[in-house]
Amino acid sequence: MSRIIETANNDIEIETMTSSKSRPSEQALRNKREVKRRLDDYFEQKQLKQLMGDDF
């Protein structure tokens, strides 16, 4: 059985990305956050289905 592992991002890395004023950097950061959010939702749903025994 696979396990979902959450990792904490490095604070310095986050501050560097968020303090950037360039347009491409902002877009890349926004894109990464959207992808992470979608992956989190997907894995949460998958884990829920496994716990429920795929009955639903």
Explain this structure.
The chain is mainly alpha-helical. It has a domain at 23-56. It has helices at 11-19, 23-52. The relative contact order is 0.09. The model has no long low-confidence stretch (mean pLDDT 76).
Short summary of the structure?
With 56 residues, the chain is an all-alpha fold.
**DSSP strand (E) fraction?**
under 5%
Q: Number of DSSP strands?
A: 0
Specify the structural class.
mainly alpha
Amino-to-carboxy terminus distance: 20 Å
- The percent of residues in helical segments reads 55-70%
Number of contiguous helices = 2
Assign an overall shape.
elongated
Mean pLDDT: 76
Unreliable residue stretches? none
For the largest beta-sheet, the strand count, sense and barrel status come to: none
Q: Give the topology string: H per helix, E per strand.
A: HH
Cα-atom Rg, whole angstroms? 16 Å
What does the secondary structure layout of this molecule look like, with pairings?
Elements: H1 11-19, H2 23-52
Keywords:
56 residues, mainly alpha, 2 helices, 0% strand, elongated
